[in-house]
Amino acid sequence: MDKKQMxxxxxxxxxxxxEGCFLVAKIHHLSERIFxxxxxxxxxxxxxxxxxxILFALWQGDGISIQELSNKTSLEKSTLTSMLDRLEKSxxxxxxxxxxxxxxxxxxxxxxxxxxxxxxxxxxxxxxLLYNGFSEMERDEFEGYLRRILxxxxxxxxxxxx
Length: 162
Hints:
By secondary structure, this protein is mainly alpha-helical. The chain is built from 7 helices and 3 strands, in the order αααβααββαα.
């Protein structure tokens, strides 16, 4: 078979291409915009959705290192550092030296940053919008598929680092 007759592997792939990743990206962006509007509606506009992800991780366990926070939020350290700068400037978090390891800086919530009850109410409002019309079983099944996709991507990223 000469070059002109060989099937193009890219065209075959494009025919089978699924739109899942595109849909997830669109859902993410639309969800962030709606969540930002809900935060504003509840007078919490000084926190954006991405910063909320950091605060959420700290509500699960306060006083953790930037590396731990990076792992919990899936944010790169460089991105996380600039976001922490803004959260610290706004009075939501402080950086404190670790007592066990002088080289390590821990991120701690301030009293202003301990607003998880109000934030949780807003997050629940967003979740209800997101899952409107889904049964509990459909929600569980959908999240199970998302976890499998996340695991696939995480293991691929881990393999690429080695």
